[in-house]
């Protein structure tokens, strides 16, 4: 299996652009990852990478070998998934990603329970509010809140997800409580932003239909929990999934804003490549999350 492992290292190094990143992704030290690459080059009798002190890039033959190695690993993964259907117990690693809030409060508590039920499985979880590339990042399942847009991935809806505008009492005492959607234009709105982020506006559910507002503010971040912290500190109005701030609302640390025209509800769901349907551990994990999340996310 060492040759297969070396292929995996090579593919991830090409995709992530460095031996350190490729090794880290596979839980290997840079020294071990570098050794795997050198062993592979020695076996093939060619140089797979152009190396300088500042960069690493595939050679021409490295590009050719990458395409074929990727196909081999894909075929092996498909074969293993088909064979796993004949096994009484699912086994192997599940690579998942989720937004920070949903990942911490919904998915993370379920992971140990799933592994307890299926002890031959392992779960590697990454949390990020940024958009991910499922195939390029080598992921099995990507959980999301919102609208995924056009995708060649299989989509599984888990639940409707109500959203809420809210702010700290201190902020509202200083700036006033908005009475209508247009009032938001005069407030400090806390925005989730990152490269290619779609959230440069808020869409509210009004009697006349969805109303899109290009709100603005002094603060933005690519971490939804940072926005919550800023809101708690009285820095502005935040647009969050209701489940994510339910405890703060119940304690009065945050107060709902414009309850009659809340943000348009979104969905909590997951995406995964169609071929993953053949893998029982992926199918079981998705089914497990769907069942456990029933009733946790009120639609309004």
UniProtKB/TrEMBL annotation:
Residues 1-59 form the HTH lysR-type domain. It comes from the Bacteria. GO terms for molecular function: DNA binding; DNA-binding transcription factor activity. Pfam families: HTH_1 (PF00126), LysR_substrate (PF03466). InterPro entries: LysR-type_TF_proteobact-type, LysR_HTH_N, LysR_subst-bd, WH-like_DNA-bd_sf, WH_DNA-bd_sf. Keywords: DNA-binding, Transcription, Transcription regulation. PROSITE patterns: HTH_LYSR. Gene3D superfamilies: 3.40.190.290, Winged helix-like DNA-binding domain superfamily/Winged helix DNA-binding domain. Belongs to the LysR transcriptional regulatory family. This is LysR family transcriptional regulator.
């Amino acid at each position: 299996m060492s040759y297969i492992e070396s292929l995996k290292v090579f593919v991830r190094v090409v995709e992530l652009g460095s031996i350190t990143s490729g090794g880290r992704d596979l839980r290997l030290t840079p020294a071990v990852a570098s050794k795997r690459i050198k062993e592979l080059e020695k076996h093939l009798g060619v140089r797979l990478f152009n190396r300088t002190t500042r960069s690493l890039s595939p050679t021409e033959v490295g590009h050719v070998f990458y395409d074929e190695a990727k196909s081999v690993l894909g075929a092996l993964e498909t074969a293993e998934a088909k064979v796993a259907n004949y096994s009484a117990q699912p086994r192997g690693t599940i690579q998942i990603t989720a937004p920070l809030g949903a990942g911490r409060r919904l998915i993370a508590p379920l992971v140990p329970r799933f592994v307890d039920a299926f002890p031959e499985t392992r779960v590697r979880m990454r949390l990020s509010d940024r958009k991910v590339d499922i195939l390029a990042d080598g992921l099995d399942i990507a959980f999301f809140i919102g609208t995924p847009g056009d995708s060649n991935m299989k989509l599984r809806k888990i639940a409707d997800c109500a959203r809420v505008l809210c702010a700290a009492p201190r902020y509202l005492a200083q700036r006033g409580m908005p009475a209508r959607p247009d009032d938001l234009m005069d407030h400090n709105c806390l925005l989730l932003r990152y490269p290619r982020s779609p959230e440069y506006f808020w869409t509210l559910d009004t009697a006349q239909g969805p109303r899109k507002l290009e709100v603005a503010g002094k603060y933005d971040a690519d971490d939804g929990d940072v926005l919550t912290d800023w809101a708690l500190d009285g820095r502005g109005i935040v647009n969050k999934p209701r489940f994510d701030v339910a405890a703060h609302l119940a304690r009065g640390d945050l107060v709902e804003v414009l309850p009659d025209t809340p943000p348009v509800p979104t969905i909590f769901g997951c995406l995964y490549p169609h071929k993953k349907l053949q893998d029982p551990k992926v199918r079981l994990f998705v089914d497990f999350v769907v069942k456990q999340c029933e009733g946790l996310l009120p639609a309004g």
